[in-house]
Amino acid sequence: MPKDLSYKAQQREALRRKIDDYLSHGGRIKEVPPGMSGAHNGGDWRRQPPSEQKPPPAERIPLNHVIATIEARKQARRRTSRVTLRRQPRRKLIYDDFGEPLRWQWVDD
């Protein structure tokens, strides 16, 4: 029973079969000497050839006034939403030197 190939091995085998089929039908593989660049016209290989380049994006419109308006609204909301809560006094248990409860005392934090 043949062993199942991993996905990568399956892809490698499919590519090898396509290359063999191409060569058997008269195709040729051109060998490129080491150090040769694959870039178009000796340029940057990451750029697309001039025929495939997209037009430059439209110029951006500064929206600083919009950002300033949004920030001003945030600040106004923060200022008005701050409500100072008056804390209620709470009871605190006071212990003596031996760790025994002594009395309750009201404490303001």
Describe the protein in words:
The chain has about 110 residues and is of the alpha+beta class. It is about 35% helix and about 10% strand. The chain has 2 helices and 2 strands. It has a two-stranded antiparallel sheet. The protein starts with 6 loop residues before the first helix and ends with a strand.
In total, how many beta strands? Answer: 2
Assign a percent range to the helix content. Answer: 25-40%
Unreliable stretches, pLDDT < 50, 5 or more residues?
none
Which structural category fits the helices and strands? alpha+beta
Beta-strand share of residues: 5-15%
Distance between the termini: 79 Å
- Spatial extent as radius of gyration: 38 Å
Summarize model confidence as the mean pLDDT: 82
Individual helix count = 2
Give a quick account of the main beta sheet: strands, pairing sense, barrel closure: 2 strands, antiparallel
- Describe the strand arrangement of the main beta sheet, using strand numbers: 1-2
Q: How would you describe the shape?
A: elongated
Succession of helices and strands:
HHEE
Multimeric organization: single chain
Write the layout of secondary structure elements.
Blueprint: H1 7-24, H2 64-81, E1 90-95, E2 101-107
Antiparallel strand pairs: 1-2
Summarize this structure briefly.
The protein has 109 residues and is of the alpha+beta class. The protein is 33% helix and 12% strand. The chain is built from two helices and two strands; from the N terminus they run ααββ.
